Structures are given as structure tokens and as C-alpha cells.
Amino acid sequence: MRVIFNEELKQVADDLDHMAQDVRKAINGAGEALLKQDVEAAQTVIDGDIEIDALESSVIDQCVKLLAKQNPVATDLRVVVSTLRLASTFERMGDLARHVAEAARRTYPASPLPESAQPVFAEMIDFLNHTADELVNLLNNRDEKHAESIILNDDKLDDLHHKTFELALSDDVTRQQTVDIVLLGRFLERLGDHAVSAARRVAYIVSGFDPSKKPTRDEGIDIA
Amino acid sequence: MRVIFNEELKQVADDLDHMAQDVRKAINGAGEALLKQDVEAAQTVIDGDIEIDALESSVIDQCVKLLAKQNPVATDLRVVVSTLRLASTFERMGDLARHVAEAARRTYPASPLPESAQPVFAEMIDFLNHTADELVNLLNNRDEKHAESIILNDDKLDDLHHKTFELALSDDVTRQQTVDIVLLGRFLERLGDHAVSAARRVAYIVSGFDPSKKPTRDEGIDIA
Hints:
The structure is a homodimer. By secondary structure, chain A is mainly alpha-helical. The first copy, chain A, has a single domain (2-213), classed as Phosphate transport system protein phou homolog 2, domain 2 (Methane Monooxygenase Hydroxylase, Chain G, domain 1, Up-down Bundle), CATH 1.20.58. Chain A contains 6 helices and no strands. Chain A has helices at 2-36, 39-70, 74-107, 118-141, 144-169, 175-207. In chain A, helix 1 packs parallel to helix 3 and helix 4 (118-141) runs parallel beside helix 6 (175-207). Chain A starts with a helix and ends in a 17-residue tail after the last helix.
């Protein structure tokens, strides 16, 4: 029984890793689409979101079956419950990356962003690419250092998000650009929040520290 | 054993009902805050979000304990897994209501919305108040009719959300109002999405139909 459980747990862990890698690709691609008007990258992110959604369904099904058949307890139970929740977080991150890609595709060959906003958004994308790398590393080696780095660094993204409002309020941009800056800034900030939430969940698997005691507050109303 | 399980399941179901009622109150209050510049209502929503967060933690803890001690299968397992996921959905709805309340408090005694945007937002709030009633009913009596009504009606909210972009792009509003219309419209639209997702999860408990096969697509990039 125990061997089967471990095999099945390994399968679901592999699927979860796969989701994390897909999310990293989606974030990379959304950044290319947004900053370099790469419409093929945009389309790849949009099409690829279906795979992330399908993986979520599969991971949840597997977790429910594991719970039904194997009655895991202690660490194993923590792993299964956290995996269920991580799958939903990754699914949501895929949606957000898709939204960014859709915005880029909509205005192609122009950028949805004015020149003035490009540097701040480039910094946000850099930050999120790095965070996505850390998330994949964290899942692979379960080293809490990566979780800490994700959780502690999130303030930087919030600071950048704050700057986007200054850009959105400038008279030098069109109304449509104001709308796009606000929405794109929000999508990227939420991507960071979900990464923090994912990092806490992995930390919970590793250490048993319950991340729900320290929920990610979405302080997203910080509007100008 | 079985009696204890049912008792414990009843306790967690009561806590989940409590969360749904708190979310309904938060949506009602956010609407009052936004449309009637009721700053006390805003503060109540903001302060009350801590209770919703605490209930989420408690529901998740109880579900994990149930899974560990009782090894539920079939319908009981579906109830526990869906309850876990519903708690997270409700927690998120509380955050979104709080964001609306925070926007109202920030601009008090003025409204964050221009006059021109009030009717559309009033319709969105009406819609969400009705949806929140249906959610509470659904949890109480597990009648799939309420789930269907929530799921099928969501298009109305999307149409209203679409209209907010026209208002945001008008030259008659200030830049700050454009920013606020976009964010507030997004928060309300996401509240509706989460209500749909919650309705699907309750339908899953009732009928065994797996809601993850028909995920709520967040089509939120519909930016003008």
C-alpha cells in the first residue's frame, strides 16, 4: 500500500511541477508579448492556458483519489492538501498571464503601454520572471530559502505597482492607456501575490508551519 | 465514529454558512459605502474582513483534521474537499468587498465614482446582492436551482462590467475617476466570478458533477 501511495504521490508531485513550469513559461511569454510586441509569444500563452487548466483538474482528481484510497496522515496529508490548493493558485496565475498576453495581442502591433510606462513594467516582469524561477526551484528542492526569498521580496513588486498609478494619472497618456496601465499593473501585482501564497503553501509542506495563519493580504486597493 | 464525523461535519458546515453570511454582509456593506458614501459601512466591511480570514483558517484546519481522523469517502469526501475550496473562495470575496470599501473610504465624503457611473455600478451592486442571497440559500438548502441561477446569470454582470469601460474612457471624468472605475469594475466582476465558482463547488457536493471540468474562465481582459 505504502509503495503505491508514494508512487501516486510522486505522479501528482510531477504534475504539480509541470504546472509550475508551465506558469513560468506563461509569465515569460506574457512579458515578451507585453514588452516586445511579440504576438506569437502572446498567442502561445493564450493557447497554453488550456493545458494549465487541464493539469489543475487532473491534480485535483488525483488528490481526491489519494485521500479516498490511502487515508494519508501527518506530512503526507499536508502534502496532498497543499497540492490541491497549489494547483488552484497555479491555475489562477495562468489566467493572469493570459490576460496580459491578451492585452498585448489586442493592441498589436502597437504596445498597450505608453513609452513612459515601459521601464516600470519591464522591472515588474523581470521581478516576476525571477519569482517564477524561484517557485520552480522551491518545488524541486523544497528548500525554504526559496520560499523566504519570494515572500520577503514581494514588497518590491508592490512598490513598482504603486508607481504604475503615477503613470496612469499622467496627462501625457491616452485614456485607453490609463485603463491598460491600471489593469496590467493589477494583473502583475496579483501574479506576485499568488506567488507568495504558493511559496507559503510549499513552506507548509516542508515545515508544517501553517501558511493560512499568515494569509497573503491582497492590499491591491492602493489606487494612487 | 460515524456520529462524531457527522457532528464534526456539521460544525464545519455551520462555519462555512457563517462565512457565506459574512460575505453577503460585506457585499451589502461595500455597496452602501460605494453608492451612499456611507463611511461607517465601509469601516465595518474593512474591520469585518479579519473575521472572514479567521473563519477560513478555522474551516481549513477542521477539514484537515476530518481528513486525518475520519478518512471520509464518496459524498463525505466530496463535501470536505469542496468545503476546503469554498472557504478560500469566500475569503477572496471578502478581500474584494474590502477593496471596494477601502476605495469608498479613501475618497469620503466624495464618491470615487463620477455621477455618470453611478447607475451602472448600482446595477452591479444590486446584481451582487442578489447573487450573495442566492449563495447563502444554496448553502442552506443545497437546491441546485440556486446554483444554476448564479451560474447562468453571470453574463449580466459581464455586460455591466463592459459598460464601465465606456464610462472610464469618457473625457468627462477625471483621470483618477478613470482609475477608480476600472479597479472598482474589476473588483465587482471578480466577485461575480467567485460566486459562480462557489456555486459550481456546491453543485459538485450535491450532484457529484465535477465543477473543475467546467472552470470559471475569468475573461476579465475585456478592456474596452
